[in-house]
Each structure stands twice: as structure tokens, then as C-alpha cells.
Design brief:
Strand content: 15-25%
Structural class: alpha/beta
Distance between the termini: 46 Å
Helix content: 25-40%
Low-confidence stretches: 188-195, 595-600
Strand order of the largest sheet: 2-1-3-6-5-7-4
Number of strands: 20
Oligomer: single chain
Shape: globular
Largest sheet: 7 strands, mixed
Mean pLDDT: 86
Number of helices: 22
């Protein structure tokens, strides 16, 4: 059972303005673990807690900062204290860039904190600096750090400048450097990929549970992460809507890399967000997930595209037989040479799942054909907020003029990640072919990706650059204007579930000409656009797919039909309803199914560690 223990935090507030103190107290009161705040260092003398925090008045902590710090110290023996960066600090930043944040928030082992504070004459913001220096001198090790940000807002700039100035004056006199304050070996990858499941004691702190509302459930979302792309856009829209519907949402990422794209949307409504790999060794990640399920009283685990989540299923089910598990498959593709696909994994682990969601009818049928029981599979199209994704004609002419497009110009739009599987080079070939036919064509790219330079070079080789525009990644407000100003949305992808961009384009009345892959035919029905056989590698089929829409009258009718189809069948409110129904279904089926036996976790953890190295470390080294 979880012990009723608060994490004591010493508030360093000497000379701070009242509003700065209030800001920090509010963030301490919103922590996921119970915190007891002290302003007199003498109050720490009789404490028996494992850890003690030091926070400078004015700092605003992330909601999970104290919990993650406690986990770090519990799984990194010998590290005296832990700190972390402010939001916006690049992952893996060198020590000088971490210094100002580290001097605002530190959590250390109680005995060491008491020993060091006993030698300090007065409570002052520089206490944090003295603690970092003292920890290095006493333990011979610097502070570890959490690679995901712990500070959502920093103290006043003048206070930061004073702290950093004090540090930089004091360190040379002590024979130390800024880098010496931090232990660079404390975080990151495990030393050996074949570690066993870490049987560690969880930190002795009490988690604060938020109440559910209106029949909502306590939900743990186990996600791959928040990488740039449609998968993340959907998750950052779905999770807040589930929270607003009364569900209590905890989010946990299971990949190793730092991933916070669009995460602020989730944090604003459901701030209980965890990146275990940034807090504990890889071997302890399953224990961290186990802790989340236990302390939050989780009723349903929703996993999506999480390799570790799949492999941990038997162990987690054995640990929590009352919890329902639901899988959400977005695409049938994932490193096929090694694993088959996400759909393959979903069918392999079907016996451990209580319900399954798929983003298209096509994918749902594939799961059933693979052996998943039909009564446990539901289709939840990723949908779109059609009230938001609409256009009233404002600035349409201005945007077209910025592309050099006149009333008769055909504007082709490629919107999405410029990556090999999206085949962006075919968009260039299509535009060149239409130009050679005497058509007035402009080609617009909205997005970033690894193929960007090659696409640019191909456009230059075909003499298309004067009629080609590379906009980079756009915010949604600007992107909506671009969709509305374009005539044809061109997506010659080799692989898709259903492209998020396809929903967006059709909702904005942009006529789609897309590959007939995955479930795309569920959106592109007759009269709304063209489906193209993706079997070939050339541009000719896509050129033919564009031709019916060269006529302005036909294109205008397709614009109206495309938006109407999305509004009538694919608004995200329908998606939230289906997901909520699937969570209830999973709970009913869980009560009917027998508990499963645990299987050895060693192989699964070895695979996960090797995957971390193969997919991220070696890839970043160009190997």
C-alpha cells in the first residue's frame, strides 16, 4: 500500500515579492504528490522523510516535477540530489544552460540536506547553490537531472541573474566548474541492454488523486510519445476532450527520446504527464508504470503504438487483474521486417486486451481477420473539430496572391511530413506534368521532413522552383488559410492509416487526390475527390486523378461534398463518444475474463533496450 507521506519542501523566499511566493506556493499545491511546505530550515531537523526539496520563490514547477524527482533518487543510488531544466531547454543541454534552472529547484536525500543546511547561517536563494556545491564535495558526485523540464515558469530574471552570477563567482574559488555540479552518468541509457526488471522500492510519497466526474473513469494512456505527426495531433486533441468529459487522464510515454510536441494542449487540462525514461533507468520503467496504475487507482489502460506497452501487458495484467486494457491502432505499418505491423502486434496480444480500437473500418476488419473477436473491436476514426476546421473566405485571395496564383491558376498542396513514405517527389512530378500540358500550376509544400532538400533539388532540376513554395511547418490557424486557398490536396503516400491531413483538407473544402491505401476510401467517396492506385511508382496516375478537377464547376461541387462528408461522419465529438463506449466495453469484458498468468519480462525488456539503442542512439550516430 502507498504510505501517507508528504514530500517536505523548503521554500527559499528571502527578499522575494509576495506575488512570487504565491506563484510558487500555487504550483507546489498542484503537485501530483502531497507536499508539505516549510520556510524555516530548523523545521527540517526532525523530519524522517527520504527526500527534501528546495525551491526558490517565483519558480513554477511542472505538476509531476516532485514525483519524478523522488523516483529518480529512488532508482539512482549514490546520486545525492536531482534537478532539472526549464521548459524550452534543449534535451541534453550542457551544464551551463542548466545552471539557472538547477539553482531554482533541487530535491536531495534528507540526511545530506539536513547536514548541509545545518552549516548555513540563513535561509536564502543561494542556499540551492550551496547545496549543489556541498553535495559535490560530500558525495564526490554531482546532481543528476531530469531531462524532461521540471520548471514551467522561472523566477524573475533579476533573481536568476543574481543566482547564476553568485555561482560563477564561487565555483572557481572552490576549484569547481559548472559541469562538475552535475553527474552526466546518472541518466540516459542503461549501461547494458540485458538488465533485469528492476525491483526497486517506490518513493515514499503520497499521490494526490483527482476525482472523476459524470461517470468518467481513471484512465492511463500509454503512448509511444509525442513525435511530430498526425499520431500526436490526434492524441493531443483526444486526451483533453476525454478529461473534459469527466475522465481522469494520466499520460505516460514509453519511448526513450524526449517528445513534447504540442504537449501543452494536454498539460493545460490533464497535467499528470510522465516520461519515465527521463527519470529512471530503462529497467525500472515497468515499475514506474505499475506505480502509476496503483497510485492513481487506474481503471482502464489505453495503449497506442507502444512496443513496451505490448510486452509489459502480461505482467501488468497479473499485477492488476481488475484493470481493463484497451489498444488503439492507428496504422498497419511499423518496422514490418522485424515486427509485421502495429496491427500484427495487436492480434498477437489480443488475449491480453479487453477491447481494441482502430482508426478505420479497413484496419478494424484486418484485426478481426487476424483473430481478434469481432465484438471487442470498434472503429474510432480520428476525426476533426469541424467547427474549428472551416473557412469563411477571409484572406483567401490574399493567400493565393502570395503564391503568385491568379483566378485560373490551379494550386496543388502537399501538406504533411516530407518523408520517404509520403513520396513528396511525386507531387513535384505531377506539377511538372501539368505545366508541360500547358496548365497554370502552383505547387505548395506545408511541412518539414528529411526529404525536404531532395524535393527542393528535384523541383529545381525540373525548372519548377518559380512556381513552387516551401512554407515549412505552419501553425493550425495559418494552415487552415492555406488549405482553403488551395484547389487540390495531393497526397501520393505509399503508406497511411487515414492521413490526418486528409481530414483537414476535406473539412476546409480542398479537393483530395490521394493514394488508395489504408482506410482513405472511407473519406474519399465518389464526388469528393480521387483515389489513386498506390501500386505504381510514377506520377501519371496522380496526374489523371487531378484532371477531373481542372474544371472549376466540378471542383466547386467537390469542395462542398468533401466538407459535408467530413462534417456528417467524422467530427471528433463522434470519435470521443466511440472511445468512451470502448472504455466501458473493456471494463465489462474484463469482469468476464479470467486473470492471465505473468510471463517472463526478461526477453521483453531486452528487446526494448536493444530497440532503444537501434532506433535512437545508433540512428543519431548515422549508423
Amino acid at each position: 500500500m502507498v504510505r501517507d507521506v508528504a514530500l517536505p519542501v523548503l521554500l527559499l523566499s528571502a527578499g522575494a515579492a509576495p506575488e512570487a511566493v504565491a506563484r510558487t506556493l500555487a504550483s507546489l499545491g498542484s503537485q501530483t504528490v502531497r507536499v508539505s511546505v516549510h520556510t524555516d530550515q530548523r523545521a527540517l531537523a526532525g523530519l524522517t522523510s527520504e527526500h527534501v526539496g528546495l525551491v526558490v520563490a517565483g519558480a513554477t514547477l511542472d505538476a509531476t516535477a516532485c514525483e519524478r524527482a523522488a523516483w529518480f533518487l529512488s532508482t539512482h543510488p549514490g546520486v545525492p540530489c536531482v534537478t532539472g531544466a526549464a521548459a524550452g531547454t534543449p534535451a541534453g543541454a550542457p551544464a551551463p544552460d542548466l545552471l539557472s534552472a538547477a539553482l531554482q529547484f533541487v530535491v536531495g536525500r534528507r540526511e545530506l540536506v539536513q547536514q548541509l543546511l545545518a552549516t548555513l547561517p540563513a535561509l536564502h536563494p543561494s542556499t540551492a547553490l550551496a547545496f549543489l556545491i556541498g553535495a559535490r564535495g560530500t558525495c564526490g558526485r554531482g546532481a543528476g537531472w531530469l531531462t524532461e523540464p521540471v520548471l514551467r515558469g522561472a523566477v524573475d530574471a533579476a533573481v536568476c541573474a543574481t543566482l547564476v552570477s553568485q555561482a560563477r563567482e564561487a565555483l572557481p574559488q572552490l576549484g569547481l566548474t559548472e559541469a562538475a555540479l552535475f553527474d552526466h552518468a546518472a541518466g540516459g541509457l542503461p549501461a547494458h541492454p540485458l538488465q533485469r526488471l528492476m525491483r526497486t522500492e517506490a518513493p515514499a510519497v503520497t499521490v494526490v488523486r483527482a476525482p472523476s466526474r459524470g461517470g468518467g473513469v481513471r484512465l492511463l494512456a500509454l503512448l509511444q510519445g509525442f513525435p511530430m505527426g498526425g499520431y500526436t495531433v490526434f492524441n493531443t486533441e483526444l486526451l483533453p476532450r476525454l478529461a473534459e468529459a469527466g475522465h481522469v487522464v494520466t499520460t505516460c510515454t514509453t519511448e526513450w527520446w524526449r517528445s513534447d510536441w504540442r504537449l501543452e494542449q494536454v498539460r493545460a487540462v490533464a497535467p499528470d504527464i510522465h516520461h519515465p525514461h527521463a527519470a529512471v533507468p530503462a529497467a525500472a520503467v515497468p515499475a514506474y508504470i505499475d506505480w502509476l496504475i496503483t497510485t492513481r487507482g487506474i481503471e482502464v489502460v489505453l495503449l497506442s503504438h507502444s512496443l513496451l506497452g505490448f510486452h509489459a501487458l502480461p505482467w501488468l495484467r497479473a499485477r492488476h487483474p481488475e484493470v481493463a486494457f484497451v489498444d488503439f491502432v492507428h496504422t498497419d505499418w511499423f518496422e514490418q521486417a522485424m515486427y509485421g505491423s502495429y496491427a500484427t502486434l495487436a492480434t498477437l496480444f489480443e488475449g491480453q486486451l479487453d477491447a481494441q480500437l482502430a482508426t478505420s473500418d479497413t484496419l478494424a476488419s484486418q484485426l478481426v481477420a487476424g483473430g481478434c473477436p469481432r465484438d471487442g473491436v470498434r472503429t474510432a476514426h480520428i476525426g476533426i473539430d469541424t467547427a474549428l476546421w472551416r473557412h469563411d473566405g477571409d484572406r483567401l485571395a490574399v493567400v493565393r496572391e502570395s503564391f503568385g496564383a491568379g483566378p485560373e491558376t490551379l494550386v496543388l498542396l502537399f501538406a504533411g511530413r516530407i518523408a520517404p513514405e509520403k513520396r513528396p517527389h511525386l507531387a513535384v512530378e505531377v506539377a511538372a506534368a501539368l505545366r508541360d500540358d500547358g496548365r497554370d500550376v502552383v505547387l505548395v509544400f506545408a511541412g518539414e521532413g528529411p526529404e525536404l532538400r531532395r524535393v527542393h533539388e528535384r523541383a529545381a532540376a525540373l525548372g519548377l522552383l518559380p512556381r513552387c513554395h516551401f512554407l515549412g511547418e505552419l501553425d493550425e490557424h495559418t494552415l487552415r488559410h492555406v488549405y482553403a486557398a488551395a484547389d487540390v490536396f495531393l497526397a501520393p503516400s505509399e503508406i497511411e492509416g487515414i492521413s490526418r491531413s486528409l481530414y483537414e483538407a476535406m473539412a476546409m473544402g480542398c479537393v483530395p487526390v490521394v493514394s488508395d491505401v489504408g482506410g482513405q476510401r472511407e473519406l474519399v467517396v465518389p464526388g469528393t475527390g480521387s483515389l489513386v492506385d498506390a501500386g505504381g511508382s510514377g506520377a501519371a496516375p496522380y496526374v489523371e486523378g487531378v484532371r477531373p478537377w481542372l474544371d472549376r464547376t466540378a471542383r466547386g461541387a467537390a469542395r462542398v461534398a468533401a466538407r459535408a462528408h467530413v462534417v456528417n461522419r467524422f467530427d471528433i465529438t463522434r470519435t470521443v463518444s466511440v472511445v468512451t463506449e470502448a472504455l466501458a466495453l473493456a471494463r465489462r469484458r474484463r469482469a468476464e475474463r479470467q486473470a492471465v498468468l505473468p510471463v517472463a519480462m526478461g526477453e521483453a525488456l531486452a528487446v526494448q533496450a536493444l530497440e532503444t539503442i537501434r532506433r535512437h542512439v545508433l540512428r543519431s550516430m548515422g549508423r
